[in-house]
Amino acid sequence: MRVMGVDPGLTRCGLSLIESGRGREITALDVDVVRTPSDAPLHRRLLAISETVEHWLDTHRPDVLAIERVFAQANVSSVMGTAQAGGVVALAAAKRDIDVHFHTPSEVKAAVTGNGRADKAQVTAMVTRILALQAKPSPADAADALALAICHCWRAPTLTKMAEASARAAQQRDRYLAKLKAAR
């Protein structure tokens, strides 16, 4: 499975591509950071992110995207920009019929380090170790994008099983309700 990890942001948007093998085996294929000038108009910044992401999607053809879920912060403008960048990325994937999954920062940290409150240095160190990289990915947005992709690879089988179980439970519930209705 090819997973594109995205750490959305207006100033720096981390992009990564990894491929999962058997078990927890993972190979890094590409990583980059899209940078946009903070003094550029919002629509131009979003366009730059969109164009780069679309190029990545068309070039690398990932099976799925893993995007960091925006969470509340004190800085509302930062959250808005992050959400807008994430939306542009999700839209580009949807246009290509590529599934998108969102993971919270604590889910990603827990998957990669075992600690949902790990700091950036711990995440970077573990990403470097897991992927057997020669050097630490830099800046942190690149490491975060890789961590998102790793998280999804390791969580995807569980997420799939949970979705299947939920669908089976819904079917059983519907059959039961139909029986009750027919018995009246």
Structural class: alpha/beta
**Would you tell me the overall average pLDDT?**
93
Q: So how many helices?
A: 5
Broad shape:
globular
CATH topology tier name: Nucleotidyltransferase, domain 5
Organism: Mycobacterium asiaticum
Catalytic activity: Endonucleolytic cleavage at a junction such as a reciprocal single-stranded crossover between two homologous DNA duplexes (Holliday junction)
Binding site for Mg(2+) 2: 68
Keywords: Cytoplasm, DNA damage, DNA recombination, DNA repair, DNA-binding, Endonuclease, Hydrolase, Magnesium, Metal-binding, Nuclease
List the helices and strands and how they pair.
Layout: E1 2-7, E2 12-20, E3 26-35, H1 42-60, E4 64-68, H2 76-95, E5 99-103, H3 105-113, H4 120-130, H5 140-183
Parallel strand pairs: 1-4, 4-5
Antiparallel strand pairs: 1-2, 2-3
Provide structural commentary.
Helix 1 runs parallel beside helix 2 (76-95) and helix 3 packs across helix 5. This protein has helices at 42-60, 76-95, 105-113, 120-130, 140-183, and strands at 2-7, 12-20, 26-35, 64-68, 99-103. Helices cover 56% and strands 19% of the residues. The chain has one domain (2-183): Ribonuclease H-like superfamily/Ribonuclease H (Nucleotidyltransferase, domain 5). The chain has a five-stranded mixed beta sheet with strand order 3-2-1-4-5. It is of the alpha/beta class and 184 residues long. It contains five helices and five strands; from the N terminus they run βββαβαβααα. It is an enzyme of class 3 (hydrolase). Mg(2+) 2 binds at residue 68. It is found in: Cytoplasm.
